[in-house]
Amino acid sequence: MAGFAELRVKSHEGQHGEGPDMAADVAIDTRPEELRLVEALLFAASEPLDEKTLAKHLPAGVDVRATLRRLQVEYAPRGVNLIRVGNRWTFRTANDLAWLLTHEAVEPKKLSRAAIETLAIVAYHQPVTRAEIEEIRGVSTAKGTLDVLLETGWVRPRGRRKAPGRPLTYGTTPEFLSHFGLEALSDLPGLDDLKGAGLFDGALPADFSVPEPSDDPALRADEDPLEPGDLDLGLAPRVEGEEE
Q1: Residue 4 confidence (pLDDT) above 90
Q2: Can you list the alpha helix ranges (DSSP code H) found in 76-142?
Q3: Which of 62, 121, 143, 177 would bridge 58 by S-S if both were Cys, CB 3.0 to 4.6 A apart?
């Protein structure tokens, strides 16, 4: 106990001196307040937050993107990192420490081969309709396959194709990026990456290519907005900003 008391006295004395403790105090005092505010908001949030949401809680004139980037650098060597998922930010355990939490992991539901193929087609070809998925796969897509992907929250209805029957178009969600550790759809592996992983055997057709998916959530020229009732599937994730 005496040793602890002495340590407290020395620490208190150091605060009034010119030693290392004084330098540490100055460093803490000069840390911008917006860093602390953003840090607190992200820690308290139950899901990733976008820059617009963060800006609502910060003083006017704060450069939210610059603040996030500085905070990201601060946390880079720590056990918890600040990462961007799509257009939102969140704290995650550092990749090299993931093994510490393996006992906490919940075994995910295994997707069927059809569901995996459908998810890949939606990711690379979005916006895409059921008929277009079937054309790419070369087989009919069971209704339950898309239902499963809607249930996971990785796929969502985007709009309706301006074509006979006005079929629904589908795209991926921020939850898809988060689950697979992607910052943006452009991080999906390209043709060279897939070849390097040994996923293509034999020669490929001369005109074979892998599409470059876009993160643009805006409807394309050949899409109409969803109609009332289109999301009353019980499976589709709620559109961001939609009223409860």
Answers
A1: no
A2: 113-125, 130-137
A3: 62
Q: Tokens representing 52?
A: 């617009």
The first and second tokens of residue 1, run together, are 């106990």
Query: Confidence band (pLDDT; 50, 70, 90) for 170?
Result: very high
The label of the residue with tokens 């689950």 reads: 179
Let me know the angle formed at the C-alpha of 227 by 225 and 229, rounded to the nearest 5 degrees.
145
Query: What is the per-residue pLDDT for 106?
Result: 58
Q: Do the domain assignments include residue 80?
A: yes
SS3 label, residue 54: helix
Judged by average pLDDT, the poorest of 151-160, 203-212, 235-244 is 235-244
Query: Which residue shows structure tokens 């918890």?
Result: 80
Vertex 238: Cα angle to 235 and 243 (nearest 5): 135
Q: Which of 181, 239, 171 is nearest to 211 (CA)?
A: 171
To which residue do tokens 């996971």 refer?
Answer: 152
Q: In terms of pLDDT, which residue wins out, 231 or 107?
A: 231
193 plus 134 within the same structural domain: yes
Residues 210, 189: Cα–Cα separation, whole Å: 9
Decide which of 102, 135, 155 is a domain's last residue.
Answer: 102
